[in-house]
Amino acid sequence: MGLVSAKEMMEKARDGKYAVGQFNINNLEWTKAILQTAQEQSSPVILGVSEGAGKYMTGFRTVAAMVAAMIDEMKITVPVALHLDHGTYDGCYKCIKAGFSSIMFDGSHLPIDENIAKTTELVHVCSKLGLSLEAEVGAIGGEEDGVIARGECADPEECKKIADLGVTMLAAGIGNIHGVYPPDWEGLSFETLEAVKAKVGDMPLVLHGGTGIPTDQVQKAISMGVAKVNVNTECQITFSAATRKYIEEGKDRVGKGFDPRKLLAPGFQAIKDTVKEKMEIFGSVGKA
Ligand code: 13P
Fold this sequence. Notes:
- There is one protein chain.
- By secondary structure, the protein is of the alpha/beta class.
- The protein has helices at 7-16, 28-41, 51-56, 60-73, 89-98, 112-129, 156-163, 190-200, 215-223, 233-248, 260-263, 265-282; strands at residues 20-24, 45-50, 80-87, 102-105, 132-137, 142-144, 147-149, 169-172, 205-207, 226-231.
- Strands 1-2-3-4-5-8-9-10 form an 8-stranded parallel beta barrel, surrounded by 10 helices. A two-stranded antiparallel ribbon has the order 6-7.
- Strand 8 (169-172), helix 8 (190-200) and strand 9 (205-207) form a beta-alpha-beta unit.
């Protein structure tokens, strides 16, 4: 199966009360680890690509070509969506052209009227091309790709305005933040989630900042309408820790230990373990 839009995945997850994981990719090893795990767990999966990661991998066309070829070469049969994460208006069009199957337009920092105008345009473009579209209301706090925003809770009325435009899924800030949560973090705002859900009805909701949210809170959010959970930092942490351990143990200096394929193997396995654990928590195992 080639790349698919996230629409059907989202509808099935919402109806089945589980969530599909979006795992961000940074290079070939991460992509391979995530695809392999999804296939082994028989789970649908969304590969997230930030604009920074796209640039790092030399451009969105490279990413789309690599992912499409890997799905083919690895004989991946579970549904896979290739999704732009926190896209700018220009970034959205670049990814559409490059062959992504799903787009996030992050207009959360724009005045609501401008967010609505640009999202409306992208709804038309994406629906014509059969792509899924995620929109955001209420900036997600924390830092991602150098963009820092304070934690926010979305205004349910604004969520309804954006949901009614016909997007596929909606990211609404509910006190979640990107990166590691500070020790004094107050947890997710379930009152906000409930109020948003009451306004947007069946719209699948997206929970960003999936690293470090206690399992019971993630699962409660899923039971209340979250159908997609994004994870990035946790893979970065486990990947770096495993690589550091390999080097600290001096294995990179023994035999062929310095071979990049060997050097990256513990980090590769760490990503697989993290993705598997998350898929189990999100309930997407066996749902492909
Ligand atoms: P974390 O980096 O906190 O896991 O969040 C990822 C994310 O929300 C990507 O959009």
